Amino acid sequence: MSPRLQKANNKQPPGLPGNFERPDGSDTATRLFWLGVGFAAVGVILVLSGISASTGLKFMVAGGTLALAVRLFSRHGFAALLLPFGLIASLAEVLKSRLDGPAPVEVEPAPLFGQPLGEGLPPLALFGPPGPPATHGAAEDAGRAVVAALAEFSVPAEVTGVRTGPVVSRYGLKLGSGVSVRKLYTLEGDLALALGVPSVRVVEEGGRLWLEVPNRKRGTVVLRDVLEQYRGRLPKGELPLVVGVDVFGKPLSLPLESMPHVLVAGATGSGKSVCLHSILLGLVALLPPEELRFVFIDPKQVEMAAYEDLPHLAAPIAGAPEEAVAVLQWAVDEMERRYGELKRLRVRSVTSIPKKERPFPFLVVVVDELADLLLSGDAGKEAETLLVRLAQKARAAGIHLILATQRPDARVLSGLIRSNVPGRIALRCAKSGDSEIILDAPGAERLLGKGDALILVPGQGDFVRAQVAWVPGDVPAKVSAWWRENRPGAGYLFAPQDGKTAPGPPSGKSRKEEEDDALLREALDVALKHGRVSAGLLQRELGIGGGRASKLLAEMEKRGWIGPTRGNRAREVLIERPKENQE
């Protein structure tokens, strides 16, 4: 018999017992064996890593059963049949473990909603309850109404896009050929009347033309909700002013250190005080007293009273004009001291120093009701001078101003203040002239009130429209109390009773009167030295302005020290030396 026939006769059908030659290479049994080993390895990894003990146990039992079965019975061809038995065994094991005892409970991470934004900061639950869900939206029929209103005034256009916000919605417009954009600006009042809304606003932004139309149903913006959106991605800047949300409903914050001073102005009921509280609470929600200190000047003495316990205060809250002048003079002295420290460290500004190595914190001077302070006689004039000095050169020393007023007129906001306070937050104004004083442009008179604002950011040509976040009335006191309980060691950097302010003279005169008397005697010395005196001579010798020189001449004439004016000629000196008891 040939070898080929003999080999064919020796073959046995698969699955029958008996000895047989295995073919070379990997067969089905070997693949099943390594599959079981792989399942068991995956189970071990799941258990050891803590991802899921229950799933890992299933993989280990199924894989181990399969590998063991293949190892024992592969020669008899039963390996493929044992795979479902392995799965059944794993399920039985899990069922048995659950019957014997409670299944391990996987602990879910605690929700972060309402928790602090950082270590050592107050929990956001103190900032009041969350606001209602947003229900605003721009419907398609509103877009058709815009197109129809434009068609009534012979302006062919189509809506190319809609952006919705809590207060207004923006409709992107594509005007027909030959239609001027200027015509659209002249039709703002007519379009508002046609659409049945208080006002509309034409905006050119990002190379596109937009029409801002107030929503039929106004949404509510709450400070806590705005702060919650910064969880995991804190606002940019070292002194972020959390104002509210922009026209698209996104959280809006402004870096104060780059602005570097801000003016908040608007008519009564426009939301100025709410805006101020939103800014202040946003700062204390993000920065501890070691990094930020405040100076509060509150002529009404009620708006800032809730912050009396705040350890961020660098000085007691100033109410009277004399107290405001004292604390502003300290701020100026502190500015000069800081510049000396920066000179010693050979750096140009406090932000050039690493945060952990800074020798002093940021200082934010907040003045509420600026008009009441500046229009309070001589103390108001002195306060204005000190504020201008701070606005001109305090930025590099880490000192910034936030000024608020409900009387944005030229008497209050002089050219010096406006030129040195470039950041502006304008709420609804009574007339376009007030808007031009705040923003150097009209527009704020057409705002909707209740926190609707236009913001001018230095370096940006376009205004930013925003909705100021609302703050419940009891939140400032709650947050201040929390900080006081958790920072009991923080104290004032300046207090009038510490003797750091210049004490009043024994005669009972104020500091301002003493300075005026000293300047008057310097003017008399100049007059005695030259034998004649004029306004120009006093300006050159004393380094003062023309108005101040004229006042000195009038006072010297009143006291009988010099003669009357004689045209453009210098005045004659009538005394030889100052009298000690001259009044």
What are the key terms here?
alpha/beta; 18 helices; 15 strands; disordered N terminus; disordered C terminus
Give the topology.
Layout: H1 3-10, H2 28-49, H3 53-73, H4 79-100, H5 140-152, E1 157-164, E2 168-175, H6 181-186, H7 188-195, E3 201-205, E4 208-214, H8 223-228, E5 240-246, E6 251-255, E7 262-265, H9 272-284, E8 292-297, H10 321-345, E9 362-367, H11 370-374, H12 378-393, E10 399-405, H13 415-420, E11 423-427, H14 432-439, E12 452-456, E13 464-468, H15 475-486, H16 511-530, E14 532-533, H17 535-542, H18 546-558, E15 571-572
Parallel strand pairs: 7-10, 7-11, 8-9, 9-10
Antiparallel strand pairs: 1-2, 2-4, 3-4, 5-6, 5-13, 11-12, 12-13, 14-15
Helix pairs in contact: 2-3, 3-4, 10-12, 16-17, 16-18, 17-18
Low-confidence stretches: 1-9, 11-25, 76-83, 103-110, 498-508, 578-583
Report strand order across the widest sheet: 6-5-13-12-11-7-10-9-8
| Mean pLDDT value | 80
Structural class, by secondary structure, is alpha/beta
Indicate the overall shape. extended
Total helical elements? 18
Q: State the helical fraction.
A: 25-40%
Main sheet attributes: strand count, strand direction, barrel closure: 9 strands, mixed
Count of beta strands:
15
Q: What is the CA-based Rg, rounded?
A: 39 Å
N-to-C CA distance: 151 Å
| Fraction of residues in β-strands | 5-15%
